[in-house]
Design brief:
This protein has about 775 residues and is of the alpha+beta class. Among the domains are: about 100 residues, Sandwich (Immunoglobulin-like), CATH 2.60.40.10; about 100 residues, Immunoglobulin-like; about 100 residues, Immunoglobulin-like; about 100 residues, Immunoglobulins (Immunoglobulin-like), CATH 2.60.40.10; about 100 residues, Sandwich (Immunoglobulin-like). The chain is built from seven helices and 44 strands. The strands form twelve sheets. A five-stranded mixed β-sheet has the order 1-8-7-3-4, with no helix packed on it. Strands 9-16-15-11-12 form a five-stranded mixed β-sheet, with no helix packed on it. Strands 17-24-23-19-20 form a five-stranded mixed β-sheet, with no helix packed on it.
């Protein structure tokens, strides 16, 4: 059983080693006597910075024998000619080996920790024998595609004679160029021979766009015969050593390509070397682009010196390999043209967090994109740009953390610092089909943290439901609803006001289940935003949305426009008296009419009072709302009638009650009691007083006197005795007059009540 477990563990170890984060050059070549420098990369974690680094050689048995390490060990074979230097801040260490011999050829490893743990990278070193050169040979070492200038001296006697450059192929010499304008076809268009002015005993040969086939021995010659001048030249055309590039999975990488002024106006390209040793174009300035890099590659504009750069984001493991940049009119690799090389390694143990590379939204809805950045650079500026698949690709900025928002995205795009700690959020709502595409998350800090996300617009309806654009009235109250379906029952719901620096959260009211959804009434919610009172500053975009903690979900946008309160048009009505208000005139007129009607015929009051008040008040209403709409007039009339009709009924009932009371009072007070005769005599018996010889005046009255016996003697006195013997008395009001006065007081009080009711209605 134990043997089976060990076998399984041994089977797992090779799989682990293939995912080693250590990276270095796969092949290194040199010649005897020269030196090499091997750079190895490792993840710059705190542990890796301080752990052991080593360089070992693989033996026939598979073991790797240490030659040099960061702990100071150096093997006897490397003593005095090798060193290992660690650069922890960059996550690299470099092994330098000098005085190479052919015995140094072999397979090596650079790694961390213990040799057998698998944290290593395989390197192949090949040391070849150098050519046997004549003693006076001058060596020129130039990279392929570059330019070389060969200097050829001569003596004075050969100044007027022919100058030439030959290439030695075996035992023969092939003419390349001479001063008689001959040019070998293999060098046509890229070689020139220049002879300086008089007195300078040297000529030069310039070869542009060196090819690997240009490698070899050359011979400069001036004159002929035994007096000719000769010089041997060794031209070594080298393949460019690939620059090692170490990048994290999901991160980005930038290739800086400097090819020289000679190709400043020539088309540029970046290609990747395939297994067939061909170089497939990834992108070029002629508009060609590999579909595997769609949306995540840019070729930045070239500078005047011919340099340019290529940025690749959203790195994948399959992006690893060797890349070449170059220049050619066809936009692809051609022999003899300058190139640069890189070897890209993508570390799967990436510190860049996982994030969605594709985000889907519906037309009219929204998306929330999480963008990672280096947590150590929390104060860096954040950006979001839209990748455009133009000829070279470009990515114009749409929003940045300092407040810049492109005009066409106002009210629908916001960059938020949440959730923080290495991630910021970008929200885009009011989606249209034109919003589909690729977007880049950027900062002005670590360029390795650039990421790409693709937004796709799919069929469907937005989950959040809000009204269209809203118009609010200045000074009044506005309530804007937002309906949340049941799927967001556990989410935090909010309203906020959009600005170019973010979206400030506002107070909102949860008004219970929403009626906009039929499947889950109890779990759906209606959350409203209230502006009370509305001010000019309230105009703008408002968002309602959902979130969980600092992570944002869907949003919906509403634009609130603010306008002045509309006042209905009206005609100016001039009052009859400048110093009397319309209400006061109506009141005075009504009181006078009440008094007159009460005196003339109280029984007509109730009906005429209603008519008179209705007419007067209707006239006043027309004066104030004459220009109003018919709907407003109808409303005012109904309100006026609803006030006056009950009041008229009250007045009519009061008039009836007063009339009955008056009749009863008259019946009682018009009886005169004459105690001496114990007889009641009705006042109707004296209606015609002249028949009894009485004067028709207020002085004739009945006098009652009490006798000394305690009785009362009543008699009718003559006018003379009344005048002579009775002192003048104050005239008493008759019962009819008292009833009329009480009736007037009642009517005045009723008028006052009607006026107060009318004023209360106007205020309402």
């Amino acid at each position: 059983m134990l043997l089976f477990v060990l076998t399984c563990l041994l089977a797992v170890f090779p799989a682990i080693s293939t995912k080693s984060p250590i990276f270095g050059p796969q092949e290194v070549s040199s010649v005897e006597g020269n030196s090499v420098s091997i750079k190895c990369y490792y993840p710059p974690t705190s542990v890796n910075r301080h752990t052991r680094k080593y360089w070992c050689r693989k033996g026939a048995s598979g073991r790797c024998i240490t030659l040099i390490s960061s702990e100071g060990y150096v093997s006897s074979n490397y003593a005095g000619r090798a060193n290992l230097t660690n650069f922890p801040e960059n996550g690299t260490f470099v092994v330098n080996v000098a005085q190479l011999s052919r015995d140094d050829s072999g397979h090596y490893k650079c790694g961390l920790g213990i040799n057998s743990r698998g944290l290593s990278f395989d390197v192949s070193l090949e040391v070849s024998q150098g050519p046997e050169l004549p003693n006076d040979t001058e060596v020129y070492t130039v990279d392929v595609g570059r330019t070389v200038t060969i200097k050829c001296p001569f003596k004075t006697e050969n100044d007027p004679k022919v100058k030439a450059l030959y290439k030695k192929i075996g035992e023969t010499s092939v003419l390349v160029i001479d001063s008689r304008n001959y040019v070998n076809p293999n060098y046509n268009g890229r070689i020139g021979l220049h002879i300086p002015g008089t007195g300078q005993l040297i000529f030069t040969v310039v070869i542009d766009r060196l090819r690997l086939s240009d490698h070899g021995l050359y011979l400069c010659q001036a004159g002929d015969g035994s007096s000719r001048d000769e010089k041997n030249v060794d031209l070594q055309v080298l393949k460019p050593e690939p620059e090692l590039v170490y990048a994290d999975l999901r991160g980005s990488v930038t290739f800086h390509c400097a090819l020289g002024l000679e190709v400043a106006n020539v088309a540029k390209f970046l290609c990747r070397v395939s297994s067939r040793e061909t170089c497939d174009v990834v992108i070029n300035t002629l508009g060609k682009r590999d579909s595997a890099f769609e949306g995540r590659i840019l070729l930045n504009p070239q500078d005047q010196d011919g340099s340019f750069s290529v940025v690749i984001t959203g790195l994948r493991k399959e992006d690893e390999g060797r890349y070449l940049c170059g220049a050619h009119s066809d936009g692809r690799l051609q022999e003899g043209w300058p190139i640069q090389a890189w070897q890209l390694f993508v570390n799967e143990e990436s510190t860049i967090p996982h994030s969605r590379t594709v985000v889907k939204g519906v037309a009219g809805g929204s998306v929330a994109v999480l963008c990672p950045y280096n947590p150590k650079e929390s104060k860096s500026l954040k950006y979001w740009c839209l990748w455009e698949g133009t000829q070279n690709g470009r990515c114009p900025l749409l929003v940045e953390s300092q407040g810049l928002v492109q005009e066409q995205y106002e009210g629908r795009l916001s960059l938020l610092q949440e959730p923080g700690n290495g991630t910021f959020t970008v929200i885009l709502n009011q989606l249209t089909t034109q919003d589909a595409g690729f977007y880049w998350c950027l900062t002005n800090g670590d360029t390795h943290w650039r990421t790409t996300v693709e937004i796709k617009i799919i069929e469907g309806e937005p989950n959040l439901k809000v009204p269209g654009n809203v118009t609010a009235v200045l000074g009044e109250t506005l309530k804007v609803p937002c309906h949340f379906p049941c799927k967001f029952s556990s989410y935090e719901k909010y309203w906020c006001k959009w600005s170019n620096t973010g979206c400030q959260t506002l107070p909102s009211q949860d008004e219970g289940p929403s009626e906009a959804f039929v499947n889950c009434d109890e779990n759906s919610r209606l959350v409203s935003l209230t502006l009370n009172p509305v001010t000019r500053a309230d105009e703008g975009w408002y968002w309602c949305g959902v979130k969980q903690g600092h992570f944002y979900g869907e949003t919906a946008a509403v634009y609130v426009a603010v306008e002045e309160k509309k006042v209905a048009g009206s005609r100016d009505v001039s009052p009859a008296k400048a110093d009397a208000a319309p209400d006061e005139k109506v009141l005075d007129s009504g009181v006078r009419q009440i008094e007159n009607k009460a005196i003339q015929d109280p029984r007509l009051f109730a009906e005429e009072k209603v008519v008179a008040d209705t007419g007067d008040q209707a006239g006043g209403s027309r004066a104030s709302v004459d220009s109003s709409s018919s709907e407003e007039q109808g409303g005012s009339s109904r309100a006026l009638v609803s006030t006056l009709v009950p009041l008229g009924l009250v007045l009519a009932l009061g008039a009836v009650v007063v009339g009955v009371a008056r009749a009863r009072h008259r019946k009682n007070v018009d009886r005169v009691s004459i105690r001496s005769y114990r007889t009641d005599i009705s006042m109707s018996d004296f209606e015609n007083s002249r028949e009894f010889g009485a004067n028709d005046n207020m002085g004739a009255c009945s006098i009652t006197q009490e006798t000394s016996l305690g009785g009362k003697d009543e008699f009718v006195a003559s006018p003379e005795s009344t005048t002579e013997n009775q002192e003048p008395k104050k005239a008493k009001r008759s019962s009819k007059e008292e009833a009329e006065m009480a009736y007037k007081d009642f009517l005045l009080q009723s008028s006052t009540m009607a006026t107060e009711a009318q004023e209360g209605h106007q205020e309402a």
